[in-house]
Amino acid sequence: MTYVLGLTGSIATGKSTVSQIFKSYGFPVVDADIIAHEVVAPGTPGLKNIVENFGPEILQADGQLDRKKLGQIVFADENKRQLLNRLNGHLIRQEIFKQVADLRAQKQPLIILDIPLLYESHYEEYTDGVMVAYVPEALQIKRLMARDGYNETDARHRIESQINIEEKRQLADFYTDNSGDIEMLKAQIQRFLQTHNFI
Ligand SMILES: CC(C)(COP(=O)(O)OP(=O)(O)OC[C@H]1O[C@@H](n2cnc3c(N)ncnc32)[C@H](O)[C@@H]1O)[C@@H](O)C(=O)NCCC(=O)NCCS
Ligand SMILES: Nc1ncnc2c1ncn2[C@@H]1O[C@H](COP(=O)(O)OP(=O)(O)OP(=O)(O)O)[C@@H](O)[C@H]1O
Predict the structure, then answer these.
(1) Nearest CA to ligand 1 atom 44
(2) Structural contact between residues 116 and 11, judged by C-beta atoms closer than 8 angstroms
(3) Where are the alpha helices (DSSP H) in the chain?
């Protein structure tokens, strides 16, 4: 029996940090951000969709998607962000399901499904439980600004494009408190794995 654990949070609340800890135990992680990048690689239908809708100026000189430029457009305009989601959402979904099916076929006991927009895109129905990586919003803004160099307005635009982290924590079956140090986080994941007999 495979247990599919959805892992989500809001931007910069620590999903990647939590998924690294699961990986360190050898559990496989299906990473929606990586898949979202792969479906828009040069020569893909995903990139063609974006160029048709956002114009060729959305490409860098080397033919790669200018992610910074696209991010600036979509996080400042909700209609454009929804357009982007509609363009390639099905390609991302297909690849997520393919990877989960492959891992199930390998009879992996635990698969981590790291999806930032898990609740927004209703992936919870494909999981056996959802874990939210949580920090209070003030710390989320601080870490987002520190990591990506955004000013507070840009950071808030990105945060407001997702369901609020307090609401996600309420929806979750499990949550980690990422406001302490990494050791505190590791201890929480270890406890989760032990409680559910994965280690
Ligand atoms: C807008 C893009 C070009 C910005 O690229 P950039 O390299 O700056 O950011 P990156 O891809 O690393 O995403 C960082 C975080 O932004 C948040 N985010 C990304 N896309 C979205 C979106 N459409 N709506 C809300 N939040 C988003 C997520 O929390 C994600 O972890 C890129 O995020 C993108 O192509 N997004 C659409 C694909 C998508 O929906 N990805 C989320 C997978 S569920
Ligand atoms: N416990 C912690 N203590 C200090 N800094 C942390 C901690 N956990 C995460 N961080 C830092 O906070 C930032 C956000 O963490 P991380 O990248 O894991 O978030 P994320 O939810 O995966 O982000 P995104 O939504 O953008 O993919 C990173 O710079 C990370 O190094």
Answers:
(1) 117
(2) yes
(3) 15-24, 32-38, 45-54, 67-74, 78-105, 137-148, 152-160, 165-171, 182-195
Q: Where are the domains of the chain?
A: 3-39+91-195
Residue ranges in 25-77 assigned as alpha helix (H): 32-38, 45-54, 67-74
Helix, strand, coil proportions of the chain in percent (round to 5)?
55, 15, 30
* Cβ of residue 183 lying under 6 Å from some atom of ligand 2: no
Query: Would you state the structure tokens that stand for residue 106, as one six-digit string?
Result: 């390998």
- pLDDT below 70 — which residues of the chain? none
> 3-class DSSP state for residue 129?
strand
- List residues near ligand 1 (CB under 6 A): 11, 32-33, 36, 67, 70-71, 74, 81, 84-85, 92, 115-117, 161-162
Encode pLDDT of 45-94 as tens digits: 999 999 999 999 999 999 999 999 999 999 999 999 999 999 999 999 99
Please tell me whether residue 174 adopts helix, strand or coil conformation.
strand
pTM: 0.96
Topology adopted by domain 3-39+91-195: Rossmann fold (3.40.50)
CA distance 190 to 199: 8
Interface confidence, given as ipTM, is 0.95
